[in-house]
Structure formats: C-alpha cells, structure tokens
Amino acid sequence: MISIRRFWWLLQAEFRLTRGLLVFHFIGIMMPLIDFLLLSQLAPPVTFTMYTATDGSPQAARLVTAMAALRADGVPDGPFYIDPQPLPAGAQLGSSIQDLVEMQAQEDRLLVTHRYANIDSNLVKNYRNRLTGAALDVWEEELGARAVTLELEPRYAIEPSFTRYFTMGLLVMAVFVSSVFIGAPLVAKDFEDGTILEARLSPVSPALILAARLVRVMLTSLVAVGLAAGLAGLYLGVWPSDGWRFAGLMVLYTVITASFGLTVGLLVRKILPAFLIGLVTTLVLWLVGGGFALPVILGPALQVVSRFAPTTYMMQLLFPLYYPGTTSTPEALGIVVGCAVGSFGLLIVIYRAVVLRPR
Amino acid sequence: MPAITITHLTKRYGKIAAVDDLSFGVEPGEIFGLLGPNGSGKTTAVNLINGLLRRDAGAVDVLGHDPQTDSRAVRSLLGVVPQETNLYTDLSARDNMVHHAALYCQDLRAARQRMEELLELMSLRDRAGDPVRTYSGGMRRRLALARALLHDPPAILFDEPTQGVDVQGTHALWDHIRALRDEGKTILVTTNVMNEADVLCDRVLILDRGRRIALDTPDALKAQIEWDTVTLQTATPLADPAALFIPLGVDEVSVEPDNVYRLRVHDAGRVLGDVVSAAAVQTEVVSVQMQRPTLDDVFLSLTGRALRE
C-alpha cells in the first residue's frame, strides 16, 4: 500500500519534471507523425486516380467498370487499385492532371490512349500496368477457353501489400524513436545538471523510482504511436484488425523501448550523444528486425542478427492485425514478454551500477 | 555518544590519499565544521559519510548505521545540502519540494504541510510558484536547505553552504543553521571560509591534504596562537622597518606592497602606541589595524601556508 502511494507520488513528480523537457516531449510525440508523413511520400499510394475521357460506347463503359473493380495484390479483399474519374469539364492534361485515359470505340476494337504529362517513367509504367490489368480482366471474360490465366506465386509465405507493411514497420519505429528521444535525454539531463544526486541519495527503492520514470516515457510513447496509428488509418486507410490487441502489444513493446531509452541515457550521460546513439541503434534494430522489409530478404548473417532484435518479434505479432488470416507464433509473444521483463531488469542493474554504487 | 563517528577513515585515488586516517565524532546538537583549503578532502569526507563514496579503510557510523552496508537507513537519516544546489531550475520551488518528498519522505501527507512551513521559514513562499532559474544564489541555497529538511532528518551535511551567496544571504543561512542546531539536529559543515567556521561552528576540524591537523572549538584553536597582527600603512616607505620595530617588542616584520607593514607581536595592545609613534617620526601613518589571531593564522602556524594558498 505504501509502495503504491509512493509510486503515485513518484509518477506525479515525474510528470512535473516534464516541464523541464517540454520541447523534447513535444518533438518526441510529433516526430513519428512527421516521419510518417515524410516516409509515406516515398511509398506509392494504394489507389491511383485515373481520369478518363470516353466516347460513351458500351466497350468503354466495360473497361471503366473493370478499372474500378481491379484490386491490389490480385486478391478479392485487396485495396482498390484504380479510382476512375471522368475528366472534369474544362480540365486539360498537364495542369493538375498528369495522366488521362482516352477511350474511343472503333469497328473491331476499343482504342485506349494513355496520355501522360509525368516525366517519371516508373510512375508512368505503374499507371500502364494497372490499366493493362483492367484490360486483361475484360479480355479474359471474352476469350473463354482460349483465355490464359496468369497466377502469381509469392516466393515468401506472405506477400504483403507494402503500404500495410510500411505502416506496421513505421509504427514499430515510432514507438522506439519516441522512447529514445524522450527517455535518453531525460536521464542524461539529470547527469548534466547534477540533479541525479537527488536519486543517488534517496532511500527509496530504485525499482520504484525507475518504474515511475518508465511509465512516464511509456505513456508519452503510447501517445506518439496512437497518433501515428490514427494518421495511418486516416491517411492510408490501414487500421489494425483488433484495436485492443494492438494496444496491449504496444504497451508491452513500450516497456522494452522505454527501458532501452533510459538505459542509453544512463550509459552515455550526455543529452546529445545519448540521443544520437539511441537513434542510430533504433534504426539498426528496426532495419535488422524487419521494420522496412521482411527479414527473409536479408543476408544469412543479418537474418541471424535479426533473431536477437525484439523488433523482429514485434513485427511478427503485428502481422495478424494487419494481414487477417495470418498468424503469429506463441514463441514471438513469449520472447517479447521476456524482452520486456529482461530489459527492465537490466535497466535496474545498470542503474544500480551507474547511479547507486559507491565509487 | 556521537551522532556521527569517523574512525581512521581513508580514501585513496591511486597514490593520492584524499582522506588520510581521519578520525572525529560529531555530537548530537552541535555544529561541527570541516575547515580546509580547496582539495583538502572535505567533500570527499562528506561523500564517505553519506555513502556516495566507498572507503578504502576505517569506519563510519551515522546514528548507528554504516553507510556502506546499510545505505538506505543512512540516507533516510541524513539531509544533504551539496556544494552545487542541484535543483530542477525549470521547476518551481514547490515542484522541487514535491519531487524531493516523493524520493525521501515517509509520511507523504505530512510532507505537504511541512513543505509549506519550510517555504515560509526560508522566506520563499511568495516566490514558491516561480521557476527556480529566476532565483538568486541565496534563494537557491535556502531552497536547497528547505528541501534537505523536508524529511526531517536528525543529521544534516552542508557542503560549503554559503558559496556564491551574498553577505545578507550568508547571515540568513547561518541563522537557519543555528536554529537547526538549537532544535537538536546534528550538523556537519564543510567550509574554506575561516570566518564561517569561526562564527558558525561549535567545533572545527582543520583538514590539510586529507589529514586532520587540529580539532577544537574556534576559541581554543585561536588561543594556541600567541601573537597578534598589527597592519600599518604609511604614506612613504620606512627606512629599515625591522630595526625600527623589533626593539619595541615586535617579533617579526614583513613588508608588503603599497607601504604596508605586517607586524607579528605577542601583545599588540601593549606596543601599538610605540609602533605608531616610531613610524610617525619618519612619515605620515595612513592607517593602523590590530587583529587578534584567526583560524587562518592557526592554519598558517600548523602548515606554514595560508588557508587560501
């Protein structure tokens, strides 16, 4: 009972200290959002708007219908690939419209002309591939026995839509970056200002002091990832299938990331170096742990390394939430729980060695 | 029985002994001073008492507990006002106190009330909501003291409490420290200011290079010095000042810049008139000052160096 009251006091005291690092907290919360917006510009949007100008013929109408029905990844529940829109009255190619699909029925065929003002050839090819995909669907209906069905067989067990994968990876990174950005400077500032002496001379259990500090960093990181997840949902339409499970996993994961951020601060003891070292380590763990692409595409040596990164297992646990129908292993959950307990335990050990041990 | 007992305490950094075979006891309800120049081992001794440093030899007992083996008990019994005030400068005085209460106080409910009393006592209540970065040096020291008293420790360690504080603030702090002594608290003060040790402390231990060179009340220490100092300034240089003053009963004459002569004499009151008259024969006497022995003189007589060297 005394410990609970003490913890509550410590937590209140921790949040009062936030006033001394308001800028760090603000950036720590907002940075994942900014990262998200910047990085999302690198990922192609799921749905392309294609402006169409048709002659009103039934053939043109069929193709427009096929364009609207085309799904990403060739799967029935994939996101729509094309959003066909009639060319607005008075609009011209080259102003706000970079691509235009013109359809003209002829005697023996439908002539489709893809006019484009883009100079990015990859983007143009991407448009054309999608348009071809819609045309293939039309042909297949007519060819009957003469049709050729092209099937995709993914090399990997999961062929993810990169937008979903990107969202998942970015959320995992958001938690880590936020925890390091706030946690590491928090402790390092105490060393720089000499205020660590208050904790060094305190008779209160270090586990309790650290738990309060950990919760403060965790809550801030959870706010950051909550905002980033909301943005992903609103901006990309990618939501986790089970919000409660997602929240639970994130709470578990923030124990690891917050412990990591505080540990970096304890070991480095200078605000800027602590932040930079924490950030680089975060990026490495994120890449090795499959935050950007599946670890299976990494070389054999990096695949071994990835087994030691908690990010790897967190990504595995998030898969079923972003790719319904897939499953994660109980081992992954066990490892993440183990990492959470272990990282907090390690934090206490390092705190005792760095802060409390008489020299 | 002393509240704090130090026995043959030694702390080495490589070949250098920061504290060397130091022994003393601080009685309950006294202000005990550790006086010495910078680097004499005062802060090291304090940090050995509060458990921040590990001793190489000897023993420390704080109210029945060893800081090395029973650190939590010692920390709950000690209040520490460090050399650097280590306050959260972006926070208000009240927030600093709340933070301290969470880390130290047993009765958290009572801490709130005591906090307000201490802020009032230290004349900080009007500014208690302002960020500490807007405080003067003296206000910060008073806040550090209030914070250290929040958990009502029976023993308090002050490491150079008036460093960087103006004269008015220094006297206010001394008054607070004396009031604590009168409440029965055990107080250990480190200082390199002889006047502070002289005026504030009940007993003073003089430290030099980690070793104890004297321990007694300030008056008893000064009584060991059998001479006074007369400082004389003249308008023009005196011809052969030693030949002029020594026949009058002066033991030693030292000449300093700006026609200043420092005379060491057994009983200044007896020879002062003769000294001034003798000097006035040669030139105009600008000023004359007689000084009884100080702790600086004690340090000088014991080490051959002045306290500030």
Task: Write up what this structure looks like.
Chain A is α/β, with parallel strands linked by helices. Chain A contains 12 helices and 4 strands. A 4-stranded mixed β-sheet of chain A has the order 2-1-3-4, with helices on one face. In chain A, helix 5 packs antiparallel against helix 7 (206-236) and helix 8 runs parallel beside helix 12. Chain A is elongated. Chain B is α/β, with parallel strands linked by helices. In chain B, a hairpin with a 3-residue loop joins strand 11 and strand 12. Classes of the chains: A alpha/beta (359), B alpha/beta (309). The interface between A and B is medium-sized, with 25 and 31 residues.
Q: Low-confidence spans of chain A: pLDDT under 50, at least 5 residues?
A: none
C-alpha termini separation of chain A: 34 Å
Order of adjacent strands in the largest pleated sheet of chain B: 5-6-7-3-8-9
Described by the principal axes of the CA atoms, the overall outline of chain B is elongated
> What fraction of residues of chain A sit in β-strands?
5-15%
The chain-level structural class of chain B is alpha/beta
Profile the largest sheet of chain B: 6 strands, mixed
| Overall SS class of chain A | alpha/beta
**pLDDT < 50 runs, ≥5 residues of chain B:** none
Largest sheet of chain A: 4 strands, mixed
Most extensive protein-chain contact, per-chain counts: A-B, 25 and 31 residues
Number of helices of chain B: 11
Task: Give the end-to-end Cα distance of chain B, rounded to a whole number of Å.
Answer: 36 Å
Quaternary state reads: heterodimer
Number of domains of chain A: 2
Quick one: overall form of chain A?
A: elongated
Range of strand content of chain B? 25-35%
Adjacency order of strands in the biggest sheet of chain A: 2-1-3-4
| Nearest-integer average pLDDT of chain A | 85
Name the helicity range of chain A: 55-70%
What is the number of E strands of chain B?
13
